[in-house]
Fold:
Amino acid sequence: MNTLRAIGIGLFVVLTGLPQPLTRTAAQPLADQHAQPRADQQMSRAEAAARVKLNAWTVGLAGGLLEGAPIRFATEIARVVDERDALHVLPVVTRGPTQNVEALLYLRGIDAAIINTDALEQFRTLVPNIDQRISYILNLFPSELHIFVRPEIHSLADLKGKRVNFNTPGTTAAYSGPLIFDRLKLDVEKTFIPHPIALEQMRRGEGDMAAVVFVTSKPVDAFLRGRWDPGFRFLPVDIGEADFINFYLPSTLTSRDYPQFIPEGQDVPTIAVPTILAAYNWPPGSDRYVRLTRLVDYLFSRIDQFRAPGFHPAWREVNLVAQVPGLRRFTPAQEWIDRNPATRPQRVPAGASQR
Structure:
């Protein structure tokens, strides 16, 4: 029972970052604070030792929304690298990609996060040296841009002034989609309703919904179910447009991905947002740095376990040496790769070997 209580206290402090017990408030006078014994002062030696042991190798990992792919990756990482007292990863539910960057920079107890690389752009004005404070451990998967349109829409230019849905706030589409459209200088009427509702409006020709934008790993289940009238399609997006090459990766949607919408043997060019496992750059040799180093060792040495049935299918295409444009790799991760030449048959850009 004491151990469970210690676990509960430890988790609450990690997730909320509260430095003091709940019984103390800022309004209490100093004398009153001294009159109320701290919870840790009441602990037995065994209980205090249990708390120290529990927290010694804990790593906080910001995942994302409960319904998103990133939180699933976070929980699967926690499951595979778990080593009881030697390493304990705590996946944390957040409000989405931008919140994950914020958590990595400022939230106590967070050492790593699953983020979309373009989410870093929002912080560059506030944090000019963000590239020195955040590095990447592993490129997890590319999230492809899908611009799905009604039959009367034939090009990106046709979308100007039209209603386009970007899914609900907090999703990758709701963040990256408008950012991509802004870079394309596409002025559209943005909506943020659940995609199933928007897709049904598109199918029926209701609500003037001209397009929906997904930013996620292909194939998207919504386009594999049911039948659509002829003419519904995905619009091509060229990596050479709008300076995309500095932020995104080239990708394609193929007839194998979406046989109902893309003729056999044909491709639709698009771009992909790299989704990465990022680390905070703690000072080398510090306690948090050492914890992340152990996480890297366990994660990389057990990478094959993620390709087993039951894990997210995208793990099968993860390449340990895939790079991320504009970011440098966390030093212990690069050192692990250098010590294990079998993992680096070639040096490839992020996403190049993943599709």
About this structure: Confidence is low (pLDDT under 50) at residues 1-35, 345-355.
